[in-house]
Amino acid sequence: MAKTKKTPRTTLPPGIGKVLKRLHHPLAVILLCVRWYVAYSLSLRNLEEMMAERGVEVDHSSVHRWVIKLVPLFEKAFRKRAAPIWPRWKRSTRTGTRRSRSGRSST
C-alpha cells in the first residue's frame, strides 16, 4: 500500500477568509494571537505585552475582537475535518444492576 504524503494547507476555509480580509494586521500576527489565547491561559493584556516584546503593536481589545470573530469559525472548520471516533463505546449488558460497596447486587 502506498503512503500518501500530507501537504500543508495553503488556503483558508471561505468563511474565515472573508472575516480576515477586513482586518488590518498581518495574518500571521492575528492567527498567532488567537492560537496563544485559546491554547494557553494567557490574558489579553499578557498577549498585548508579548506581542510588544516582539515588535508588533496590538491592543488587547483588538485581540479580543479577533478571538470573538475567529474561534467559532475555526471550530466549525475543524469539526468538519475531524475524524470519526472509533471504536464507539457500547453500553454494558449489565446496566440493570448496581453494586453496593459490600459487593452485593441491589436491584
Average pLDDT confidence is 76
The shape is: extended
Report the biggest beta sheet as strand number plus sense, adding barrel if it closes. Answer: none
Question: How far is the first residue's CA from the last residue's CA?
Answer: 53 Å
Strand content: under 5%
Number of H/I helices:
4
Helical amount? 40-55%
Low-confidence residue ranges: none
Number of strands: 0
User: What would you call the structural class?
Assistant: mainly alpha
Summarize the structure.
The protein contains 4 helices and no strands. It has 107 residues and is mostly helical. It has a domain of 68 residues.
Protein architecture, described:
With 107 residues, this protein is an all-alpha fold. The chain has helices at residues 14-21, 27-39, 44-53, 60-81. The chain is extended, with a radius of gyration of 23 Å. It starts with 13 loop residues before the first helix and ends in a 26-residue tail after the last helix. The mean pLDDT is 76.
Pick out its properties.
single chain; 107 residues; mainly alpha; 4 helices; 50% helix; 0% strand; extended
List the helices and strands and how they pair.
Elements (H helix, E strand, L loop, with lengths): L13 H8 L5 H13 L4 H10 L6 H22 L26
